[in-house]
Design brief:
single chain; mainly alpha; DNA Cyclobutane Dipyrimidine Photolyase, subunit A, domain 3; 3 domains; 5-stranded parallel beta sheet; 20 helices; 46% helix; DNA-binding
DNA sequence: TGAAATGTTGGGGCG
DNA sequence: ACGCCCCAACATTTC
């Protein structure tokens, strides 16, 4: 009997620690061939956007380096996944394929077809959970249905057996006698032609080492202060783990156990990891939600699609400092503080009445942590049309949110330098500042910084009125 | 994981 | 001393 040859198909699990597919292949014995296949067309409308592709490139470069230190390699291919795997199997004589599961609807369908096709060819195929604390189908209500309310979901999760301890990095990854051909990472063209990513590089170490450092740093001083500081965008109060978790550069089980060891102060952050699982739970059970509201009646909401306003929002020129600061942080670093995400998203949907899908698309293209489950949950939550959503009539006041969570204006001043001459009293409402204050701050409103694109009070009443009309038309669902 | 409008309470100024 | 009013502070309701 010939020896085993196993393919390990890397996807959003670009690490060696707690990598169940890799560990299973190593444990099986024989040769192990790590593979990455670039096949964006199979992810359909929600193939990774620009910011995420940039990160993906760096993450793959890091994974190549980590594998080479283990005297292994990463074989890179491009094209339909099944075809690419089939070619590799033919070239190498592989008799097994291992991978970790993904939960995006297009990929669930594709992967189950691939699994069946490979099994039909007599291959050994095994898939694993590498991305979640709890699999979407493990968590069920008493009547066996998926959860739609987070707290109930999370209580149920906490009653289940705790997620497993992370697996160690394999000691050795046995190489094949002959490596199959591989593309160069550069050949995938994941990086932009024009280098717009300087701000990303300043802001992030996009490697597994960077992920480990991020987790370690957060689990120290910031963690006990998390519930106090997480809403303060000028502080480093949040974990900033989201891109690492998305690309699997740190295992969520590693994060879970590291944080939990810190004791009682950890539950607030663990709950946030719970929201991440909940988002995947919803995406898996309600696969239409990236494009359609979970509460179907909202499909008929009287949205507006004003391209000039959308552009103002995207470029951080709405005239509301907290919104604009967030949108500029996003553009520069590929990330936005969560509190500001809520405010900026709410502004697009409720002040400008732009369909939440437009916002989801922009975040999808610009966030390095763009994740279909989280993005979908977040936008439907803001629009009031999703599971456990904010009621539609809950309209964030961008001035009050700014004053509450950026009381000194430090965050606004950092991202909107043209306002840096204003003090805390006016920085979140420059249009109300006395003329002499604006003058001495060197600001000509409407020139250096825009006047508000819409009046808050007007917008608030308009959105409530729209909701009211709409609700009457759709009494059954709203 | 709101904000605004409305309602209630209680202290103090003042006739 | 007492009632009245004002209004800030807080609570509740409504959107």
């Amino acid at each position: 009997m010939s020896k085993h040859i196993s393919l390990v198909w890397f996807r959003l699990d670009l690490r060696l620690e707690d990598q169940p597919a890799l560990s299973a292949a190593v444990r099986r014995g024989g040769e192990v061939i790590p593979v990455f296949i670039d096949s964006p067309q199979e992810e359909g409308r929600w193939a990774a956007g620009g910011a995420a592709l940039y990160w993906l490139h760096q993450a793959l470069a890091d994974l190549e380096a980590l594998l080479e230190k283990k005297n292994s390699r990463l074989i890179i291919r491009k094209g339909p996944a099944l075809e690419s795997l089939g070619q590799l199997i033919a070239e190498t004589g592989a008799d097994a394929v291992f991978w970790n599961r993904r939960y995006e609807p297009e990929l669930v369908k594709r992967d189950s077809l691939i699994k069946q096709a490979l099994k039909n060819k007599g291959l050994h195929v095994e898939t694993f959970n590498s991305a979640l604390l709890f699999e979407p189908w493990e968590v069920k209500t008493g009547s066996g249905t998926p959860f739609k309310v987070f707290t109930a979901f999370w209580n149920k999760c906490l009653a289940l057996p705790s997620p497993a301890e992370p697996l160690a990095v394999p000691g050795k990854i046995p190489s094949p006698s002959k490596w199959p051909a591989s593309l160069k990472l550069k050949d995938l063209g994941l990086e932009p032609r024009i280098d717009w990513a300087a701000g990303f590089r300043e802001s992030w170490d996009m490697t597994c080492g960077g992920a480990a450092k991020c987790l370690k740093d957060f689990s120290g001083e910031p963690l006990p202060r998390y519930l106090n500081d997480r809403d303060r965008p000028e502080l480093r109060g949040t974990s900033r783990l989201s891109p690492y978790l998305h690309f699997g550069q740190v295992s969520v089980r590693r994060a879970w156990h590291t944080i939990r060891k810190e004791g009682r102060s950890s539950s607030g952050y663990l709950r946030q990891l719970g929201w991440r699982d909940f988002a995947h739970h919803l995406l898996f059970h309600f696969p239409e939600t990236p494009d359609k509201p979970l509460r179907e009646a909202y499909a008929d909401f009287p949205w507006k699609n004003d391209n000039a306003l959308i552009k103002a929002w995207q470029t951080g020129k709405t005239g509301y400092p907290i919104v604009d600061a967030g949108m500029r942080e996003l553009w520069h670093t590929g990330w936005m503080h969560n509190r500001v995400r809520m405010v900026a998203a709410s502004f697009l949907v409720k002040h400008l009445l732009v369909p939440w899908q437009r916002g989801a698309e922009w975040f999808w293209d610009t966030l390095v942590d763009a994740d279909l489950a989280n993005n979908t949950l977040g936008w439907q939550w803001v629009a009031g049309c999703g599971a456990d959503a904010a009621p539609y009539f809950r309209v964030f006041n961008p001035v009050l949110q700014g004053e509450k969570f950026d009381p000194e204006g430090a965050y606004v001043r950092r991202w909107i330098p043209e306002l840096s001459g204003l003090g805390a009293k006016w920085i979140h409402r420059p249009w109300e500042a006395p003329a002499e204050i604006l003058f001495s701050a060197g600001i000509q409103l409407g020139k250096d910084y825009p006047k508000p694109v819409v009046d808050h009070e007007f917008a608030r009443r308009r959105t409530l009125a729209a909701y009211d009309t709409f609700k009457k038309q759709k009494p059954a669902e709203a």
